[in-house]
Amino acid sequence: MKSNSKKSLPTGTPKNLKGGHSIARRTMLRSAGLALGLPLLESMTPMAKSAFASSEPRPGDPTSPVRMACVFFPNGVINENWRVAPELDSDGRDVVTTDWQLSESLRPLANVRSKINLIDGLALDSGRAHKDGAGDHARGGSTFLTAARPVKTSSNIRLGISVDQVAATAIAGQTTLASLELGMLDSRNAGSCDSGYSCAYSSNISWRNESQPMPKETIPRLAFERLFGSGTAAAQREQRMLRKSILDIVRADAEKLMKKVGETDKRKLDEYFTSVREIELRIERTEQQDRRSMPDLEVPFGRVSAFREHVRLMYDLMVVAFQTDTTRVATLMLDNAGGVRAYQEIGIKDAHHGLSHHRDKTENVEKLKQIDRYLVEQFAYFLEKLDATTDAGGSLLDQSMILYGSGLGDGNRHTHENLPIVMAGGACGKIETGRLLRYGSEQPMANLYMSMLQTMSVPVETIGDSTGTLSGFLA
Amino acid sequence: MLSRFTARLPFIAIIFLLSVMPSSNGSAADNAESASLQWSKTGWPLLKNFCVDCHNADYAEAEIDLTLLESLAGVREHGDLATKVIGMIRFGAMPPEDAELPTLEERIEMSDRLDNLVFHGTCDLRPRPGKTTARRLNRTEYNNAVRDLLGIHWRPADAFPSDEVGGGFDNNADVLSLSPMLMDKYLLAADKITSSVIVDPDTLPSVEKTFAGTTLNVIGETRTGSFGQRYLRPDGLAWFDVEIPVEGEYRIEVFAVPSDQEDGRLLATIHDGGGTLVAITGHKRGEHRGSDDRDQFQTVLTSGRHRFFVKPTSIESSQRESLVAEDPQWKVGHSKDERIASLDEPVLQESRLPGDARLEPDGDIDEDEFRFRVGKVVVRGPSERTRSDLPPQQRSILPKIPSRRDNVYVDVRDPAEKSLRPILTKAFRGPVDDEDLSPYLELVERVCERGGSFHDAMKTAISAVLVSPRFLFRVEVPETDADRKLAASGLVVPLSSNQLASRLSFFLWSSIPDEVLLRAAAGHDLDTSKKRMEHVRRMLKDPKSDSLGTEFARQWFGLGGLNGRDLKDMIAAGKDSDVKLRVDDLTRETEQLFLHLLRENKPVTELLTADYTFVDSDLARWYGLKWDSDPSADADRFVRVGGVDPARPGILGHAGVLMLTAYPTRNSPVQRGKWILENLLGTPPPDAPPGVPGLEETKTADANATLREQLELHRADPGCASCHRVMDSLGFGLEEFDHLGRLRSPDDDARREATGELPGGRQFRGTRELAVMIAGSETRKLADTAVRRMLAFAIGRELRPSDRCFVETILDDAREDGYRVGDLLVGVIQSPPFLDHQAEPPSESDVAISDSPKKETSL
Asked: Does the pLDDT at position B17 exceed 80?
């Protein structure tokens, strides 16, 4: 593979992979099969059957729909703990290898190492200042999935469509929801958040079109309702909840009253109890019926204040959303761009963004490493859960492609290159996994989007500043 | 036939109208012992002779065993039976005409002796005040309670199933029941009610708009800063239009910086589209490289489009006060900037940048020329407190709104308590302790914790209040240990101050106590008779006591029977055919007469003799009365008018009563007579025996027979004769009116039939003479009826034989002043059945509560 991949290679063509000595035989076979253009269904079906019969985990079934999820975190990473070997060799040519070691920050991904790709060398040129001056966080967030240049304004926002929305628009109608946008923190969609950039830029990675960000759902329960309850079903559910709460209280009032009254009064109040009871039973029955139509996931009502619990619920929701094929496209913002969450649960009281300007102070750098790893830990939870969820098409992870990364490389210096990017999942056999892809020259992030869209058979000519697909990425 | 009727009439009438009241008759036995002796000597032998053959333990016709009444103890125990027997004997309803009949004297002897025994048997012992069962609010009480609690003026309970009537009133504890369907309706109504008084402002339109860069227009030459800030020359203006969704107070923040090396602030003026000065802001001078300096103001804006101008000045903000005080050019709200006022729309539009414009930052801006930089202007609002589209009650119901963190309402308990404590206190009609309150507060906390708005949480909590048994039921249980001890030993327990407050308010207002009454109760003001009466007087002056007309009087006189009556014929038959008469007009006439007698403390006899009445314009026209057509007067308002036809005395001349007691097409002297017996004289005739044909089915001798002749034929049946004689005689007194309540013309044959005879050979002709005669000789019976009805309504239960003891005391007290209605009402309030009760000790038996469903998904 040549380092200059601006002229994109014909996609779908397997390449000779430098250093790729230990590619699984199965992967090779599959790659060959694809290259030979065998009818997918015929070639795969017997395999699928045999695999099913022997309960062997299989890579994704190419006839299954590919699911796409994109997870964003702000403020870049500490490269020292993130970056994995091997480095580029002296002639600076691309490295694509399955022979690599997890770094400190990525250690939590050990169980799914064979199902992820690490990509190094991607950049978001639209995120760079050029003439627009300050505002790297807003640009880092807004370009993450659009690779488009945000217009510096606090009111008339203009950006571009994001990769998830390209996919969602193309497959709209095939699932209940075209896409699901999740976040951990509400958007501030008014005013400006970063140096004259509208808050919409910092708060949204998913953009339906150049001026319309997709608002995030931050309350797990509401996301759940959105996925699995129509508007009225959800409203009815809410209504039942409130009814039950009311009945709980008044029943307690009645019980207290009952202790004070004599026989005759008691007979009258019994009418009250009977009525309350009858309504409670009715609600209970309706709830049971309702529950039968819902996936088996306990989602608490209201906000979840603990980060770990909150983010895992969000990941759970994405799993059930994919599992039930309620949607095939999801995004999750772990924080808004330039996020200031203090990761109290791992003993860090400083705001993330403040820390990210660490000026090489060891204390701050160490904390950032902890945060990087902590977030990866949660991501690993997601991947493992996806991998453990299987259907006729194999594990969900094998049928998905999960982008995990930040719009900034080095948070201290606000760099928009060398972005920390993990691509997990085999996209139904369309992406070979277990690799490190290290590019010798800067590759537009948008080219990765082009490749991702290709696995979903969504034809687009360009997105953001794309120049083609990402060379060597697709099988 | 006629002669037979008139010959036999006095026979019965004398019995029922001359029967004695023990307490007012000196010759009656003056204690239980002598009453018992007399009964054994003269009463019981007669009863045994005439009645016991058919009504004994072995052969109890109609399941009545009269041997139970042989002794004082038996009469005490079977007071209800004794009372019924007295009525039957006096009416002549028993024995049947084909049996051996007692003479008049024998009837009097039997009934008076038994009556005497009943009275002394109960009243010589310390009479017990009785107990009212826990009773739920009826529809009217619910409507009035939510009106007084939350200030709503629609009637949610009208959607509830109608309440059963017991003892003549729909507030009777024993018949008011609660079905699951009603529970459903309670929940629904609570939703509707709370939604009508609390609205989450977040669900209403609001504005948070930033005007900056391309959306902040500049008149005059301008430059663009690197963050899109607009630079103005000293004579420049920045402006924008903003769409305001609803009237309220909006906050406008101006971020600006005047370029200067010096310290201090410079003023900028803000003008509306017409140039009027709306605010003055001050901005810290500084280098343009620095950040903008924010100043803000609040202004009330109506809905619609508003235009604002920001105009820089070179005036130090230290001069602001003196300028505002002295300079006519600096009067906020008044001064006008002529230049802005005279700006042409085209000039303004020209300064507006096209929607797709991009502002490129200018380098090297000459800050001496472009002295004033505006970063942005932000318009936010309306503030919740000022917005005009919230329910008017909301501010008083939610006096405090908690703050929000990350869009979640936090620290909600205290604001919730500020709202809920007074609501619970009023709704539950007495003090609530923390233990009562905390489940409600916790509900609010839980709803808010899961991301619900404070407003929604409060709606839910108040809904729970409206469904709580403590709101829906009036339960009178002993409140102190001392009272519980009394109750446990079966003694009379005085009602607590709070319970009295509720009894007063539900009696006089058909609603919950107000704050004044609750405060009085808390201060034990209601425990003393004098202070209690002060409150009664205050409450009767309050228009809420009109409920004594609409609820009490209406039911007393059975006026609810007019509901659903088609008034078409009545209207067509009126003197003025375009009159818009409604059933409500008819009932209100009677209600108003009662309220007048009550509030003016008139003798109860005026009910029959009033030579005035109460009408609104429609009813006045229907009666042909002069109506003072003051155009400013509310045509629906009822006023007292004189000049009523003398043939229409008091309630017996009320069109509503006359119509109520007639069939749709013809009169019914029977019904009218029955109505007088039942509602004025308090002696309802016994029900017709089974198998008696109605008047229509009675064989008619002659197709042209008069109504009187037909009725006489009907009475030829021995099963009917005894009662009908009484009813018909009274009813014929009202034959002057037709079935629509119109006075018949003097030459109408039917009018000649309006005659009869009262005891003592007192002949009467026409309604007026009848009314005056009853008022004159049956005053105590009239007052007795009034008191019994009031008491039953006031305490929510049917009266028992022993209640008669209290009624007689009330009547004795009111006799001297001629039984005035107000005095009777006071007597009721001061009577033991109203003030005390026989509380049941808490029952030990298992509470019949089924297991509650799993709570896993409850809040």
From this structure: no
pLDDT at A221: 84
Among B805, B809, B822, smallest CA distance to B129 is for: B805
Tell me which chain B residues have a C-beta less than 8 angstroms from the C-beta of A301. Answer: 450-451, 859
Q: In this predicted model, what pLDDT tens digit does every residue of A317-370 receive, in sequence order?
A: 999 999 988 899 999 999 999 998 999 999 999 999 999 999 899 999 999 999
HSE, side-chain direction, 13 A CA sphere, residue B361:
17
Kindly determine whether residue B134 and residue A265, on different chains, have CB atoms separated by under 8 Å: yes
Exposure string of B335-367, with b = 16+ CB inside 10 Å and e = fewer, is bebeebeebeeeebeebeeeeeeebebeeebeb
Q: Which residues of B are less than 8 Å from A264 in CB distance?
A: 131, 133-134, 840
Residue B4: φ, ψ to 5°: -65, -40
From chain A, the residues in CB contact with B420 under 8 A are: none
Beta-carbon separation of B849 and A281 below 8 A: no
How far does chain A reach from its first CA to its final CA, in angstroms? Answer: 13
* E-strand stretches of A367-457: 390-391, 394-395, 400-405, 421-424, 436-444
ipTM: 0.79
Cβ within 8 Å, pair B854-A284? yes
What does the pLDDT look like over B537-556, one tens digit per residue? 999 999 999 999 999 999 99
Give the model's pLDDT for residue A11: 41
Name the residue among B319, B313, B337 with its Cα closest to residue B254.
B313
Indicate the residue type of B116: N
* Interchain CB distance below 8 Å, B847 and A255: yes
In order, the DSSP letters of B511-524 are S---HHHHHHHHTT
Q: Is the peptide bond before B22 cis (omega within 30 degrees of 0)?
A: no
Mean per-residue pLDDT for A142-166? 90
DSSP assignment of B425-444 equals HHHTTS---HHHHHHHHHHH
Write out the DSSP string of A63-83. Answer: TSPPEEEEEE-SS---HHHH-
Q: A78: exposed, middle or buried (C-beta count within 10 Å: 0-12, 13-18, 19+)?
A: buried
- For residue B441, give the chain A residue with the closest CA: A249
**pTM, 2 dp:** 0.73
Smallest CA–CA distance, residue B297 to chain A, in Å, is 18
pLDDT at B631: 58
What average pLDDT score do residues B755-782 get?
A: 85
Phi, psi of B332 (to 5 degrees): -60, 130
If you average pLDDT over every residue of chain B, what do you get? 86
Can you tell me whether residue B615 is helix, strand or coil? strand
Taking CB atoms and an 8 Å cutoff, what residues of chain B touch A266?
A: 843, 845, 847-848
